[in-house]
Amino acid sequence: MTTKRQVLESAAYLEAMLPFAPEIGLVLGSGLGPLAYELEDAVYIPYGDIPHFKTSTAPDHAGRLVCGTLAGRRVLCMQGRLHGYEGWSPDEIAYPVYVMKALGARALVLTNASGGINTSFAVGDFMLIGDHINMTGKSPLTGPNDDALGTRFPDMTFAYAPALQEKAYEAAQDCGIELHRGVYCGVNGPQFETPAEIRMFRTFGADAVGMSTVFEVIAAAHCSLPVIGIAMITNMAAGVLMQPLSGAEVNEIAIRRGADFRRLITSLVGRI
Questions:
Q1: Could you give the 3-state DSSP secondary structure of residue 139?
Q2: What tens digit of pLDDT does each residue of 209-255 get?
Q3: Interval 8-32: pLDDT, tens
Q4: Which of 23, 24, 54, 129 is the most buried (most CB within 10 A)?
Q5: Cis preceding-peptide flag for 190 (omega within 30 of 0)
Q6: What gap in Å lies between CA 128 and CA 149, rounded to an integer?
Q7: Using CA atoms, how far apart are residues 27 and 78, in angstroms rounded to an integer?
Q8: What is the pTM of this model?
Q9: Rounded distance, CA 94 to CA 239, Å?
Q10: Are 106 and 23 within 8 A, CB to CB?
Q11: Around 185, how many Cα atoms within 13 Å sit in the side-chain half-sphere?
Q12: What does DSSP say about strands 179-186 and 64-70: parallel, antiparallel, or unpaired?
């Protein structure tokens, strides 16, 4: 259970370390980690130094907060996120969202690497997340609710802020990047899904699948922090192309398309 007391303790520690109060929170998924090095006058703080934060163990996730200026905005980045498959609980994964809100963030930008379910997608495409399906069977809000953080039963109808989605389309157009829109299916992992599971998710209406994001979005809805999410399609999901999947493939595509992804996110941040 996350409490307001814990959040304020984390925020107080960070306020003493950060050069300013951030306007925008940014979670850097696979392939976007290098964006942190593009921040001006950046300050780096390892997760392990922050009270109540957990440390990231996922490959290529640096596991630190980076605060600086990007596209003229004051940004606080998570350079690497936490995942359920690492053994962290949903509330531990979502915890940094509450801290970003407490520090002053007025919007949260989430990014990830996903498997494509929609057969009209191709590897390397980008998808604006319009909605999600939580197939983890879990929630960061399970257990007692601290009313100081948010309501017991948050509404998820507009969890992905329509106004921010419009800004994403504008950014994509200016960058000359095609931006699909779709439904993201969140699973626990770390194993890739079976072809039968992917067929089920497609029947449910999912366009992409991944092992992150949904807990962060639920927490943001809980504390009334507007969210936008963009996924990079780094592989086609199991059974779509009838070929084996590997983490190496995901990382290769993330690196190959990373520059365009970073350009898109930078343009988006400048519009928020």
A1: coil
A2: 999 999 999 999 999 999 999 999 988 876 676 666 566 666 777 77
A3: 999 999 999 999 999 999 999 877 7
A4: 129
A5: yes
A6: 27
A7: 5
A8: 0.94
A9: 31
A10: yes
A11: 23
A12: unpaired
